[in-house]
Amino acid sequence: MKKEQQINTLNELEQALNSLEKQTLPIDTRGAIHNAKSRLSQFKRSIEQDAGQGRLAALYRVSQSLGVSLNLDDVLTQVMDAVIQLTNAERGFLTLVDKDSSNLNLVAARNIQQENLQREDMNVSRTVIRSVIESGSGVVTTDAQDDPRFSDQESVIINALRSIMCAPLRARRQIIGAIYVDNRARSGIFTQDDLDLLNTFATQAAVAIENAQLYTRTDQALGARVTELETLSLIDQELNAQLDLDHVLLITRQWALKGTKAAEGWVVLCNDEDSVTNLVSASQEGDAAELDDWVIAGISLDTAPKLFPAKDDTPSYFIAPFSHTGKTIGAIIVSHPETISASDQQFLERLAARAAAAVENARLYAAIEFANEAKSQFVSIVTHELRIPLTSIKGYTDLIRQGIVGETTDQQNEFLDVIGNNVGRMADLISDLSDISRIERGNINLKPEIITVQTQVLETLSSLRHKLEEKSQNLLTDLPNKPLEAYADPSRVVQVLTNLVSNAWKYTPEGGEISIRAYPNNGQICVEVTDTGIGISKEEQTKLFTQFFRSESAVVREQSGWGLGLSVTRRLIDIMGGEIGFNSKLDKGSTFWFTLPTSAKSQ
Ligand code: ADP
User: Fold this and answer.
1) In this structure, which residue's CA is closest to atom 20 in ligand 1?
2) Is the separation of the CB atoms in 124 and 155 below 8 Å?
3) Residues lining ligand 1, CB < 6 A?
4) pTM to 2 decimals?
5) Which of 119, 343, 425, 474 pairs with 405 at a CA distance of 20 to 30 A?
């Protein structure tokens, strides 16, 4: 039996004894009744004391569990369970004040079985709740129907409310809501003691609720920020996947629509620094409608975003300009039949900033491509034009040397040698430049076939052998007897080998050693050219294979060369499907190696 019921029974007993006492009874019976009454009131006091202590213990228990969770739903459930447990109310409600609108939101409701209440059961006295929130003091009524404060209130009458108790939820001196409990059928359920208890509990509950609200808000804000950052990083990836302007405009438009609730979207570029009316490009998909001139005129030169609210039949437009070095270079424009939300506007502004960078990158890339193409064209024309006079100079020099125009003196022969050497240098330069320009323009025409690598090695050595002999350099070859078959353009393999062996010859002092080795390796053919020459410093090794790189060393500068050979070599190997690399130690020597595929498939 509950304490409350026990006391009620004791009260009934007391009343019965009182009415008995009023009758004429023998003196010892009267004495017994008197004794019984005093024992009864002693018993009642002890039960009430127990009840008070029991409720304090309950308050302590439920308060302890509060605040363990920071999940708002969990906290509200705990609060409602505790309220029902502490007050024995038939129903309990929790109302929170909406900070922005000041509206009262009924956020949780329980009945005595601690079950969530359905919407239709939520007929409470909102007047009582509002007055508690406004005054900041709790209210208790034993019978609302007879209480002059509440008896004429519509909700009290309609819902036949009798016992009502309501306490404010106060956190950091602010009322954030109220706890309301009632009993519709019975009067006299709640006492001032109950209200004190509810007030005490409400103070703790308010802190727990506010903490959970704060945590939820921070958590949600953080979650939203993380999602947005993920989206923006995805946009960055997509925008920078290709450095093509049309692609950038298309991706920007797609995201403008995908990331907002906009109905239509445009991305426009301004082609004139002083005017935004000249649009050079608008990326539209499907049947995106034409933009009205007045919208385009709204693109602000001062890079400020602009919102045109919807009017009559005209939808609302939002313009997020994107800029470079403080100047508007284009804009994202979206429209919506009604309105474009503040968060959508923010998203579009962030997207515009990213689009600006991507547009600039794409433009720079296009400019570089254009310049590169112009350079390649120029080189191709120049090399072509130079080749003809050079061939003629070489031809006539050879004829003079052969004595066709008469006997030549030693000095004349010396001069002819100088001319011959310089023509040779120029011919090398022209050949390298024309290769580079052809490779860059994708015009190089390779004729790969199955070759025997030993053949190309021997061919190269036969044309360079006399040079090596002049410098008394020792030539070693390590070639297997079994033919090493590779799939490559034979003349280009000779060109590669000539470059590597010439370098070994040029950058190895007299009396040094040069060795060539070829062997199968991992399904490919590997060729190594090793010298005991000057080697390459660690710092200069990083620059090797870049166009026009030549070491600062005096030995290198003494030799003729343009710093193009290795760059061409690497590109040729690359095109033929092989790899190239080197090992070098300053003052000790270098090994340059390259691989070739063995068949068209392994290329
Ligand atoms: P070039 O020989 O005409 O200068 P390359 O592109 O063939 O041009 O070589 C670039 C530079 O790499 C050379 O100038 C030289 O500094 C360095 N180099 C190339 N091969 C060797 C080598 N075998 N030993 C030392 N340095 C070398």
Assistant:
1) 503
2) yes
3) 499, 503-504, 507, 531, 533-534, 536, 544, 549-551, 556, 561-567, 590
4) 0.54
5) 425
